[in-house]
Each structure stands twice: as C-alpha cells, then as structure tokens.
Design brief:
Layout: E1 2-7, H1 14-33, E2 40-46, E3 50-52, E4 58-60, E5 63-64, E6 75-79, H2 86-89, H3 92-101, E7 107-110, E8 122-123, E9 130-132
Parallel strand pairs: 1-2, 1-6, 2-5, 6-7
Antiparallel strand pairs: 3-4, 7-9, 8-9
Length: 133
C-alpha cells in the first residue's frame, strides 16, 4: 500500500486537497469492487492539528509533521496550492521541515496541474507536477 501524504498548510486551496483525495478514494473503491485490496492510504499532515483553508473552512484532524518517512514504506508527498506569490506562500516551517526530513525515495507532487515542483525536486516523467525529492 502506498501512503499518500497531503501537506495541509494555512490557506490551502481546498480544491487542491479534495480533488486528488477523491481520485485516490475512487481508485481504492474500484479495486474493492474487483476484490482487490486498497492501493492507497491517505494521510493529512500539517504544522498544526487544524487550519483554515483558503475559503475559510477549517480542516482538522491533521497529523503532526513527521520526523521522517519509513524508507520501506512507499510514500507520495502531495504539496497543495495556496493563494499568493511563492515568496508569500512558502514560509520557513515547510522549507525547513522538507530540507531536514526528505529522503530520495519519497515522491512529491503538486496538487494543481498548473504548478511546478520546487527546483530542489527532480522531475520524474512527462508530467511537470511530479518529482523525485
């Protein structure tokens, strides 16, 4: 099973969270109909246990930022969009966490098809929204 970990920050664009999460839920549902085990386990992490989205809806039940990811467990880190310019949106907490905790076998994806991975991530494949960290 692949851990799909959504990094939920203050002002996260709700659509960037709900859209991909629903796609993974539907994929698991299709597998279940075929008698197969789910392929994805969704997790939601953040610097706080709850935060307001860009539309003001509170997202709660967030796990704390982990110290790292289990190298034996396949993990996809999904970086969600936030309104504003990059310098305003990306604060020191997520950058410090990512720089200190990432490992080369974690895949990271952006939640929006129009966005691009940070320069420190290396693109993996034809999509500009998927990278190897």
């Amino acid at each position: 099973m692949i851990d799909v970990v959504f990094l939920v920050l203050p002002d996260t664009l709700l659509l960037d969270l709900a859209g991909p999460a629903e796609a993974f839920r539907l994929a698991n549902q299709a597998l279940h109909r075929r008698g197969r085990a789910p392929a994805f386990r969704m997790r939601h992490i953040g610097p706080r246990p709850q935060t307001a989205s860009s539309v003001g809806l509170t997202v709660s039940g967030l796990e704390p930022l982990p110290a790292g990811f289990d190298p034996a467990q396949p993990t996809w880190l999904v970086l969600l969009g936030r309104p504003g310019e990059v310098d305003e949106v990306v604060g020191p907490t997520p950058d410090c966490w990512r720089a200190g905790r990432r490992r080369r076998t974690t895949s990271c994806s952006t939640g929006c098809a129009g966005s691009r991975p940070r320069r420190r991530c290396r693109p993996t494949g034809s999509s500009s929204t998927t990278a190897r960290c």
